[in-house]
């Protein structure tokens, strides 16, 4: 199968070839012809499967075939949950439209809005945006969605997790009812299916991989350690293995900062990214990590969602996520695009319940090892992990009931990612 056989025009084939791709991935094989036919799509695809090109290439072809000669209204909108993902998707849009007469831009919070407004007013065809900043600019009458022909919801499951459902509904109401809709999600949860029913019109269902599976080439390991030994174990793994590029996940911003500082003191260059970091600091840290100037990037789940780091060899779960699906998203940072990778989880006694939840969703048992010199001695704490897990799930997946705590949670996350 070749990209040409999918029906792409010569300008797009040239752009794809320039990026070094010769054969489409399974998700691209399935989605590109369907989208070119103008049909709505509900696609389930893990990170690293090439899904961005799967919707970007046909979207650009459709827009190029009905080119606006003078004024350029926003004709395609791509919504993403985080700033980093928005920036990455826009980079892909620019790369693939290099030989087309199409303009695009990206808008998100954490940076000055004036340059974004100026670019939009000069006329663009494709807008990549996070929900918060998009609604901010629309409220200021700085943009209009009245001419949108194609809507893409990328990583829709994460947008729901972050409390963007109300914003998404507002944005939908600002667009024409007649449009093509493309919804991409890592999983087909009940909430995603409900969202799809309200947006998509007779969608074609596409599943690139079985739901809730992980990349086959990711070597998964768990090490049983005491909570107090995790930092020293992390340092040992990185130094003994002479690892040059490692992405580490923590559950909290405070832990990310503390771990990054400890690694720096141990002579391992590192940086932390999370919601409290400025966009400039996050962009600088990611650039340093990609260029290998920084060996370790310590991140929270929200900040790391959508990061595109080619050939990332190592991921460490310093703390296991309290939502099993997040484990899949985390280790999906490695083993991308057919490359091999390693995902290591450091598990203390209070996280054993999390391991069982992850194994249940994976449908397999994770091997557990002990590191010599760091044999675990911890006993379970009084708090039960399963009850903690349940409470945290309630915070991370707030109901749309109007309860004060849930609303505060949603508003906080919207402000953080604008």
Structure overview:
With 418 residues, the protein is an alpha/beta fold. Helix content is 42%, strand content 15%. The chain has 17 helices and 14 strands. The protein has a seven-stranded parallel sheet with strand order 3-4-2-5-6-1-7, sandwiched between helices. A seven-stranded parallel sheet has the order 10-11-9-12-13-8-14, with helices on both faces. The longest helix has 15 residues, at 51-65.
In short:
This protein has helices at about 10-20, 25-35, 50-65, 85-95, 115-120, 130-140, 155-160, 165-175, 190-200, 230-240, 255-265, 280-290, 300-305, 325-330, 350-360, 385-395, 405-415; strands at about 40-45, 75-80, 105, 125-130, 150-155, 180-185, 205, 220-225, 245-250, 270-275, 295-300, 315, 340-345, 370. With about 425 residues, the chain is of the alpha/beta class. Helix 3 (about 50-65) packs across helix 4 (about 85-95) and helix 6 (about 130-140) packs across helix 8.
């Amino acid at each position: 199968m070749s990209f040409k056989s999918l029906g792409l025009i010569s300008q797009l084939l040239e752009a794809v070839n320039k990026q070094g791709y010769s054969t489409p991935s399974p998700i691209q094989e399935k989605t590109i012809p369907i989208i070119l036919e103008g049909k709505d799509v509900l696609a389930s695809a893990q990170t690293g499967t090439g899904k961005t090109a799967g919707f970007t290439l046909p979207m650009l072809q459709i827009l190029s075939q009905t080119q606006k000669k003078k004024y350029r209204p926003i004709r395609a909108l791509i919504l993403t949950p985080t700033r980093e993902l928005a920036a990455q998707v826009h980079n892909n849009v620019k790369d693939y439209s290099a030989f087309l007469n199409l303009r695009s831009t990206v808008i998100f919070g954490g940076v000055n809005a004036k340059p974004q407004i100026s670019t939009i007013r000069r006329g663009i065809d494709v807008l990549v945006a996070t929900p918060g900043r998009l609604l901010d600019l629309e409220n200021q009458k700085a943009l209009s969605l009245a001419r949108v022909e194609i809507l893409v919801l990328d990583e829709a499951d994460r947008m729901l997790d972050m409390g963007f459902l109300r914003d998404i509904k507002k944005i939908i109401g600002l667009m024409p009812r007649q449009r093509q809709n493309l919804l991409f999600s890592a999983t087909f949860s009940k909430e995603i299916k409900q969202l799809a029913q309200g947006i998509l019109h007779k969608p074609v269902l596409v599943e690139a991989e079985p739901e809730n599976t992980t990349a086959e080439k990711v070597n998964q390991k768990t090490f049983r350690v005491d909570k107090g030994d995790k930092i020293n174990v992390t340092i040992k793994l990185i130094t003994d293995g002479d690892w040059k590029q490692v992405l580490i996940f923590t559950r909290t911003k405070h832990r990310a900062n503390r771990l990054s500082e400890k690694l720096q003191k141990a002579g391992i260059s590192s940086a932390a990214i999370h919601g409290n970091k400025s966009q400039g600091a996050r962009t600088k840290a990611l650039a340093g990590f990609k260029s290998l100037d920084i060996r370790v990037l310590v991140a929270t789940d929200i900040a790391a969602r959508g990061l595109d780091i080619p050939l990332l060899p190592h991921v460490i779960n310093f703390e296991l996520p309290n939502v099993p699906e997040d484990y899949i998203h985390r280790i999906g940072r490695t083993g991308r695009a057919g490359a091999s990778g390693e995902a290591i989880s450091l598990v203390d006694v209070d996280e054993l319940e999390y391991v069982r939840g992850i194994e249940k969703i994976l449908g397999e048992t994770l091997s557990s090892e002990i590191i010599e010199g760091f044999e675990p001695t911890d006993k379970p704490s009084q708090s039960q992990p399963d009850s903690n897990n349940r409470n945290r799930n309630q915070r991370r997946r707030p109901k749309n009931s109007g309860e004060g705590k849930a609303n505060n949670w949603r508003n906080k996350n919207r402000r953080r990612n604008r």
